[in-house]
Amino acid sequence: MRGIKDIAARLKVSPTTVHKAIHGKKGISEKTRNAILNYMNQNDFRPNRAAAALKRRPIKLACVLIEPSGRNFFYQDILSGVQTVIADLQAFNVETTVYFTSFSLEEQIKILEKILIKEGDSINGLVITPTHHEKLNDIISCYTEKKIKVVTLNSDAEGSTRQANVSCDNTMKGRSAGELMAAFLGDSKSGKILLLGGNRYLRNHQETAQGFISTISELQSELDVFECYEFDDPARLKKYMKEYLESFSDILGVYCNNLRNTFTACETIREMGFSRKLKFIGSDVHLKMLPFFEDNTLNATIFQNPQQQAGKSLWNLYYLVTKEEKVSEFTKTSISIVIRSNVKSYLQ
């Protein structure tokens, strides 16, 4: 047994609950407290790590995330995962501040510069959801030069000096969508597939698009893939989609590699009367998807577990700062294929 986190995992409670049991704090039932303490006694566990954490200076972490407003449903789940771990890390004397930006590269650089000026001498680590695959490298270098650990979340700035990245295997995500689309289309010998590739400057969107295209090329080489990259403006994406669907009568399927655009695509397909006529694969899961699954506008999504990504990124940052556990440069979270029959299980 290595620490509080391990006890929490074994007993299916949070590290915060274990911390409260150890230190006699309020907020948990006596039954839970006794179960934790009995387990610790039976396994001869002594909470040295927790005691040491309370004696040291607080660890200060910063999270720079995309504002979870409007159709940024994916980032609502990212924030939820971060908030859960922020609460758990309080037991280890960790203070975490969350900052929000839009998808604007300039805005993200500005907030990173502001944090560095005001808190660069006091913070120990940074989690960031990058808005560009390379243009954040200079500001990230400024952080690591000050010995601040940096973990990228969901997308990546792979050429930078960040220490670690947490995401799903985006190429696998794209390849899974490609294999599923090929199965949906069966023996089709000709036609087109519309790829809604999202933001061409995000590493994760690049990788999913490449994975999808390569798999369709392998499995359905007779089909042409038309690529459309629009991310910031739902109205513009809808306009482009309508132009494609009206101009080409042989479009058989659509794949959208991000949740934000999946809703716009669902609305467009339904409005144009193409539900059940096209095979549509989207990304991730949200309650508002259910009607589109029910009327067969949406046939499947590839779920990349954003809450799990967010949680792992913050724990990895904590371990980089404390050196309590070794952290791999890349941590890949699980992906799942979601269809109408199982979608509700991903909403629990």
Secondary-structure topology with pairs:
Blueprint: H1 4-11, H2 15-23, H3 30-42, H4 48-55, E1 59-66, H5 73-89, E2 94-101, H6 105-119, E3 125-128, H7 137-145, E4 149-153, E5 164-168, H8 170-185, E6 192-196, H9 203-219, E7 224-228, H10 234-247, E8 251-256, H11 259-271, E9 279-283, H12 290-294, E10 300-303, H13 306-322, E11 330-333, E12 336-338
Helix pairs in contact: 1-2, 2-3, 5-13, 8-9, 10-11
Describe it for me?
The protein is an alpha/beta fold. The chain folds into 3 domains: 4-53, 434 Repressor (Amino-terminal Domain) (Orthogonal Bundle), CATH 1.10.260; 57-167 and 306-333, Response regulator (Rossmann fold, 3-Layer(aba) Sandwich); 170-303, Rossmann fold (3-Layer(aba) Sandwich). The protein is built from 13 helices and 12 strands. The chain has helices at residues 4-11, 15-23, 30-42, 48-55, 73-89, 105-119, 137-145, 170-185, 203-219, 234-247, 259-271, 290-294, 306-322; strands at residues 59-66, 94-101, 125-128, 149-153, 164-168, 192-196, 224-228, 251-256, 279-283, 300-303, 330-333, 336-338. The strands form 2 sheets. The chain has a 6-stranded parallel sheet with strand order 2-1-3-4-5-11, with helices on both faces. Strand 1, helix 5 (73-89) and strand 2 form a beta-alpha-beta unit. Helix 1 (4-11) crosses helix 2 (15-23), helix 2 (15-23) packs across helix 3 (30-42) and helix 10 packs across helix 11. It starts with a helix and ends in a 10-residue tail after the last strand. The model has no long low-confidence stretch (mean pLDDT 92).
